Amino acid sequence: MEKSCPFEDTREMDGAASLSQSHETHDSKDGVMDPRNPQNWSFTRKTLLFVSLMSSSLLADGAMVWGSTLVTQQAMDWKITVEHSATSMNWGILLQGFGGILAVPLIEAYGRYPVWLWPQVITMFMVLGATLSNDYSTFTVFRSLQGLFGTVPQVIGLPIIHDMYSPHEWPRMINIWGTTFLVGPFLGPAIAGYIGAGTNWRDSFGVLTAIYGVSTFMVLAFGRETYYAPDKTPASRLGAYFGIGNTKLPKLATLGFWCQKLVVYVFKFPLLMTGFAVLVTFTWPIGITTTIDSFLHSPPYLFDTIEASSMRFAGVIGALCGWAFGHFFNEWIYRRHSANWRTELRLHGVWFPIGSMACGLLTYGLTMNFDKHWIGLAFGWIMVNIGMVATIVAITAYVLEKYPDQSTCVSAILNMWRTCGGFAVGYFQPEWIVRNGIGLVFGIQAIVVCTAVVLTITPVLVRERRKQPQGSGAA
Predict the structure, then answer these.
(1) Compositional bias (Basic and acidic residues) spans (predicted)?
(2) What is the pTM of this model?
(3) 114 preceded by cis ω (within 30°)?
(4) What domains are there in the chain, each with its CATH number?
């Protein structure tokens, strides 16, 4: 295991250590339940805070791709091509990953609440700025900043859940919170398209601004600082807003330590290899998500905005099916090998999903190449999303179990790899399709994803298996 440090005294720990700490911190010096401990808060306070977290987490991805069903309207308004209009989201998707990385040291130094609250407020104003933009460049700047600040709930959810719930509740609450990342990227564009069909893209973004306002009010009203140490005097409500008194850790030293920790973990062999696998498996699905409207509005499909928006539910179905497969596979593999358990066995959960993704890419590409019925696009997208979500479930389960005391750090790193893949594809896929044809492009994508996953996951499995006889801990 990793060498401990003074700044890690509240990090998530594994199994028995977490349970031991949970029992110890429930009791105050006089032997009664300590009401300052978030685990001892009332059910109502916990639920309201958790629902507020869910609202901002749902908007993290859902609001970032909100405009993907409106790119045709925007292209006509700004007098640019639809392909150019669709790239307005790309920098925001990239900055989601880096925003999550930057949030980790701040969370540790200043507490959870201010790093959750203020980026939420800033993001609301960035969406408002995008709504009022009159040209592509201004709109893209606001959308990019939306991605940078709006991604924080994707990182801060884990420490809040670990602070507020006891260890045996963690898996259930993480699964509930995690559904926001499954449905958000598809539900958001669908709602945006329905609104835009009745009015225009600007009104649709106005509704998104209002939704962000409601979510921000919930964070203000129901959010609380969840960082807890038994010997720490709790911060005042006003101080908690600004990170004053939330933690007693030295700020500069804590920021420096966690910046160094992030760099170290990015280049750890298991995280580096699985990160590349995440990058590749997210690249092609995000490419579909951000570009499918330009195909659906063109011959032979000629979908209107309502029909194109409704197609997003194929993505929702695929994501939920992928999550279900990953959940049940993790349970099954653990029961099967519980007598001789090895963490890397969870990575075997990628093989079927990658096969599903490859078949989905082929189905999607060939359907469009030969102008077949749109149902082929829907089934192809479902299979692609099964592969995307089930793969990330397997990889996330592996890295969180391998590094149980660094869950926030490794989640931010995986989020960075995911968004880097999503950022890149929008710039090269449209031109690639024009140059080589859609059938060939999606066939190559299927080959690339299978080859990349085999070449990244297999070395991790081999390396971990070789280390097992020596009883090594986390690398």
Answers:
(1) 1-14, 23-33
(2) 0.84
(3) no
(4) 1-260 (1.20.1250.20), 267-467 (1.20.1250.20)
